[in-house]
């Protein structure tokens, strides 16, 4: 069971990274006709914040929610808040409208990386290096209080609320 939890931690961000990579590749290709792909590329190019949220919702919120239904625990979102800022930085740094990385951007990336490493270390030390050992007590209390009703409500409460923090 621990191996599956470590796999969830290791692979949890892969759908986001693959989606952004595929979006960049599709949009860099020859201009698409008026299709959903063209609309996605236009949103990605012209509204990067909107595009980020549209990619984040299915790749983190929905997939992590499905995982929480199977695992009966919302634990996976907690370690990812130590990494999500790095994914977001990578998204913006690799965006076609991004400026070339100068000293200021490199300093910001280094500080963000150091912060993420420190926060990740603190998180895993608190969890005694055991993924899924415990979840946020607020969500555990809601699950106990609401019973089966927690499972449909956990999507907006535990995961939809994360979207607003992006």
Tell me what the structure shows.
The protein is mainly alpha-helical and 166 residues long. The chain has one domain (2-164). It is 74% helix and 0% strand. It is built from nine helices and no strands. Helix 2 packs across helix 3 (36-46). 15% of the residues are buried.
* Major sheet summary line: none
Shape: globular
**Number of H/I helices:** 9
Q: What is the straight-line distance between the termini?
A: 31 Å
List the secondary-structure elements in sequence, H or E. HHHHHHHHH
Mean pLDDT: 89
InterPro entries: UstE-like
Keywords: Membrane, Transmembrane, Transmembrane helix
GO cellular component, one term: membrane
Pfam families: DUF1295
Summarize the structure.
The protein is mainly α and 166 residues long.
Task: Furnish the topology, listing elements before pairings.
Layout lengths: L1 H10 L2 H15 L7 H11 L1 H24 L5 H4 L3 H10 L9 H24 L10 H10 L3 H15 L2
Question: Main attributes?
Answer:
mainly alpha, 166 residues, 74% helix
């Amino acid at each position: 069971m621990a191996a599956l939890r470590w796999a969830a931690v290791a692979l949890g961000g892969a759908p986001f990274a693959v989606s952004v990579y595929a979006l960049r590749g599709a949009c860099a290709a020859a201009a698409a006709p008026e299709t959903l792909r063209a609309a996605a590329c236009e949103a990605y190019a012209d509204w990067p914040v909107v595009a980020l949220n549209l990619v984040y919702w299915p790749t983190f919120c929905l997939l992590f929610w499905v995982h929480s239904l199977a695992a009966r625990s919302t634990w996976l979102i907690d370690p990812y808040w130590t990494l999500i800022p790095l994914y977001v930085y990578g998204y913006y740094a690799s965006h076609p409208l991004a400026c070339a990385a100068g000293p200021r951007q490199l300093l910001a990336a280094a500080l963000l990386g150091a912060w993420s490493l420190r926060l990740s270390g603190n998180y895993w030390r608190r969890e005694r290096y055991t993924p899924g050992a415990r979840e946020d007590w607020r969500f555990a209390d809601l699950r106990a209080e609401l019973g089966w009703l927690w499972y449909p409500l956990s999507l907006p409460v535990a995961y939809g609320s994360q979207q607003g923090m992006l």
